[in-house]
Specification:
single chain; alpha/beta; globular; six-stranded parallel beta sheet
Length: 344
């Protein structure tokens, strides 16, 4: 088996905006991967990125894919360009980790999955929030049956980024961000709920535009029916402030007949048990800053090195995308939408 400590996975980053730089920063603490090259369409952007992160700036994507010192590509381009970039990488024999969402259409997601499978390369989806230690703690509690019979789950994630999008930013447009905050932000909580409680069967949703000028809605609320029978809600806003450190509002509360679990991204996790007199804190040390991305990147590198599936597969990304698109359809048609309508 490949020893990644001695022979790290050689990667390139494609798409050098805010998140591409965040990933590059996380790589400094992840010796299992080595950043060798980068590409963006802007010469100035790729030159600045290369200087900051100590890698080669490549003039064309085709040139990057031809390099022998690139084994895998991390894709952080705009959402609606994921398919073309990932498919080209797979055809060139490069493994891929694509940031969430996997794509903006079911057809594109399926084409990406099929092409990667045919090429025999690893496709991972960057659903980084499920690697947070707090979420891992909640997952252990759910798997250990602490809830008893799960009755209901409610979740939310919101920030104020929608207030700052302008027409020169790709996030401004519905084609790149269908569902607005649902696709760009709440998709993390959709993946977390999928990880905790399994697939979703039916979605109902409502969207509202309140103050922003972009093509996107400002607010969305979902009602979820899981295949297990569990019921849940998810709310998300693009116009609501975080705390003084600009941390977003982010929580999952799960209710059962034996206990309730209250998890907040920034303030920890507590259990309230049936017959209990007080909340019981769950002890863990959360990652500082973006260190949790190292967990995600190490999982990707290990999947490539061993030939196993990554934790967040293309199929998982497809299901989560289907929840988003079912919500968009539900909002437009003003009726519940079965995921099977999109996936058949």
């Amino acid at each position: 088996m490949r020893d990644l400590a001695a022979d790290p996975l050689k990667i390139a980053i494609v798409g050098l905006g805010r998140w591409g730089n965040t990933i590059a920063g996380a790589l400094r603490g992840t010796p299992e991967l080595k950043l060798t090259a980068c590409f963006a369409r802007s010469p100035d952007t790729r030159a600045a990125f290369a200087r900051s992160h100590g890698c080669a700036a490549v003039q064309t994507y085709a040139e990057l894919l031809a390099r022998t010192d690139v084994e895998a590509v991390i894709v952080t381009v705009p959402n609606d360009r994921h398919a073309e970039v990932v498919i080209a990488a797979a055809r060139a024999g490069k493994h891929v980790c694509v940031d969430k969402p996997i794509a903006t259409t079911i057809a594109d997601a399926r084409a990406m999955i099929a092409t990667c499978a045919q090429a025999g390369i690893t496709l991972a989806v960057g659903a980084s929030a499920r690697f947070l230690r707090g979420h891992r703690a909640v997952k252990r509690l759910v798997d250990d049956g602490v809830l008893g019979n799960p009755a209901m789950v409610e979740a939310s994630i919101s920030n104020e980024r929608g207030l700052f999008y302008s027409a020169d930013n790709w996030h401004y447009y519905a084609a790149a961000c269908p569902g607005g905050p649902l696709l760009q932000t709440a998709i993390h909580q959709i993946d977390n709920l999928y990880h905790l409680f399994g697939p979703v069967r039916r979605v109902s949703a409502a969207f509202r535009k309140i103050v922003t000028r972009s093509e996107l809605p400002d607010v969305c609320v979902l009602w979820l029916e899981f295949e297990s029978g569990l019921l849940g809600t998810l709310g998300t806003s693009f116009i609501s402030p975080g705390d003084t450190n600009r941390n977003n509002a982010c929580f999952i509360h799960a209710y059962g007949d034996r206990a309730n679990i209250f998890h907040t991204r920034w303030n920890g996790t507590r259990i309230f048990r049936q017959g209990g007199g007080d909340y019981e804190p769950v002890v863990y040390d959360e990652f500082a800053g973006f260190d949790y991305l190292g967990e995600e990147l190490r999982d990707f590198a290990a999947a490539v090195a061993t030939g196993r599936a990554p934790e967040v597969t293309g199929e998982a990304g497809l299901h989560v995308l289907a929840v988003v698109l079912a919500a968009v359809r539900s909002g437009a048609l003003q009726r519940p939408v079965e995921l099977e309508e999109l996936l058949q």
